[in-house]
Design a protein that fits this description.
It is a single chain. With 258 residues, the protein is an alpha/beta fold. It has a domain at 4-82 and 158-257: P-loop containing nucleotide triphosphate hydrolases (Rossmann fold, 3-Layer(aba) Sandwich), CATH 3.40.50.300. It has helices at residues 46-53, 93-97, 99-103, 109-121, 137-149, 167-184, 195-201, 223-226, 230-234, 237-257; strands at residues 4-14, 19-30, 35-39, 61-66, 78-81, 155-159, 187-191, 204-208, 215-220. Strands 5-6-7-3-8-9 form a 6-stranded mixed sheet, with helices on both faces. Strands 2-1-4 form a 3-stranded antiparallel sheet, with helices on one face. A hairpin with a 6-residue loop joins strand 8 and strand 9 (215-220). It starts with a strand and ends with a helix. It comes from Thalassobacillus hwangdonensis. Pfam families: ABC_tran.
């Protein structure tokens, strides 16, 4: 059974004079442990779709179902990681990671130990009492990942979490996040504008048309790529073929916008 079902989601933004169709009739499923990327031209509604899945905004029509049960998305089941880490500069790294349990009144010895274990897992054990300003961009994003994982969400929602990083740090963090998600057997949805990133991180890629965002095509990443870490997948012979295929479709969509 599907972990998440996106069922005929549409979303319109209204003003006093007019309205804009952001998304139109989006449907797909996310299986347990699966990684899906949402790709498309700027303004096609990728982040809006992620916000609807997270339960942050209601869709104009359609439904989000988790664990095949009817009803609105339960935000407790979601972990949201954004382009910016949004760590509180006046709190230590450990205090930032403990933010979720504090909000949900779950601060206890077990959670304290879990925070320390996660910081060790992401390679930040020596920085538990440091402040965000003392860490590099990649380290801050790893802290943000630990903060996201501590509440044990079923699904991770990733909104271009690597785009603000330099290219080398981005590549290292892609490998790290991919490995950690497989280790914890988490399902994930990534919003990105980077075709390469979508290919090396994903099991499937959903390509959206320009506004209104509709599903143009769903690509299945070859199994020989899915079995490799992202850095190695970029160098695999199968990579260029699917890249060229998606690039062709993306270029056609960009041309349609003009």
């Amino acid at each position: 059974m599907s972990l998440l079902t996106v069922n005929q989601i549409s979303h319109h933004y209204y003003t006093k004079q007019d309205y804009t169709k952001a998304l139109e009739n989006i449907s797909f499923t996310l299986e347990d442990g699966e990684f899906i990327s949402i790709l498309g031209p700027s303004g096609c509604g990728k982040t809006t779709l992620l916000s609807i899945i997270a339960g942050l905004i209601p869709p104009t029509s359609g439904k989000i179902e988790i664990d095949s049960s009817n009803g609105e998305a339960n935000t407790v089941d979601m972990g949201y990681m954004l382009q910016q880490d949004y760590l509180f500069p006046w709190k230590t790294i450990k205090e930032n990671v403990m933010l979720g349990p504090k909000i949900t009144h779950q601060v206890n010895t077990k959670m304290e130990l879990r925070a320390l274990d996660l910081l060790k897992e992401v390679g930040l054990e020596p920085t538990v009492n440091h402040y965000p300003g003392e860490l590099s961009g990649g380290m801050r994003q790893r802290a943000a990942l630990a903060r996201t994982l501590i509440t044990e969400p079923k699904i991770l929602l990733l909104d271009e979490p690597f785009s603000a990083l330099d290219f080398q740090t981005k590549l290292r963090l892609e490998d790290f996040v991919s490995g950690l998600l497989k280790q914890y057997e988490k399902a994930a949805i990534l919003v990105t504008h980077d075709i390469s990133e979508a290919i090396v991180m994903s099991d499937r890629i959903i390509l959206l048309k320009a506004r209104p965002g509709e599903i143009k095509q769903i690509f299945t990443v070859p199994s020989d790529l899915r079995e490799l870490p992202p850095f190695q997948a970029r160098q695999h012979p199968s990579f260029q073929g699917i890249f060229d295929e998606i690039w062709k479709e993306m270029s056609a969509l960009e041309t349609e916008k003009i």
